[in-house]
Amino acid sequence: MTRTAKIICVALLGWSGCASADLFDQTSRNGGGFLPAEQAFSLSAIATGPQEIEARWTIAPDYYLYRHRLQFRLLDAKDELDTRIKLPAGHAKVDEHFGEVEVYYEDLSAVLVLPISTAGQELTLEVRYQGCAEAGLCYPPRSESLPIIMPTAAKP
Question: Is the dihedral of CA 62, 86, 154, 120 positive or negative?
Fold first, then answer.
């Protein structure tokens, strides 16, 4: 990590976040053992009904996601839609950065329930999350935007 990048990183993330980012940068340059974030935390999403979306992560072995760092925003062509989020219970963990937290291993399914039908619409799901490797690397927070095509409503 360059000197300028370190200064910016310290200003934005604090020293511990930059140390993790610097470790990740060094590891990826030398072919070391940490996965890129998109492989450690593979995210997909699918509409499961006209008022429901499921976001799914496949989490690599020895990696985990923080429950308290999950954020979801659902956008349509006009406005942000309020949603109710259903998450399973996580595993208790004492984390050196955040203290007592809940984390997810292996896989995670979050269900977003919409207050109105969006049948047939194309929406954008914006997801923000953060995870770590058990070996000590914590990734910076990530943000992904996923297009979702909502199914048409079932006819009675």
Answer: negative
Phi, psi dihedral angles at 63 (to 5 degrees): -125, 160
Residue in the structure block whose two tokens are 């360059």: 2
pLDDT 10s digits, 17-42: 544 454 444 344 334 689 999 999 99
Query: Could you give phi then psi for residue 115, rounded to 5 degrees?
Result: -75, -15
- Exposure b/e, 39-76, CB count within 10 A at least 16 = b: ebbebebebebbbbbbbebebbeebbbbbeebebbbee
* Cβ–Cβ under 8 Å, residues 60 and 40: yes
Q: Is the pTM of this model over 0.85?
A: no
Which residues, listed in sequence order, are joined to residue 131 by a DSSP beta bridge?
A: 65
Which strand ranges, in their side-by-side order, compose the sheet holding 99-104?
91-95, 99-104, 63-66, 131-133
Q: pLDDT tens digit string along 47-85?
A: 998 889 999 999 999 999 999 999 998 876 555 666 789
User: Where in 60-141 does DSSP place strands (E)?
Assistant: 63-66, 71-75, 80-81, 84-86, 91-95, 99-104, 107-113, 122-129, 131-133
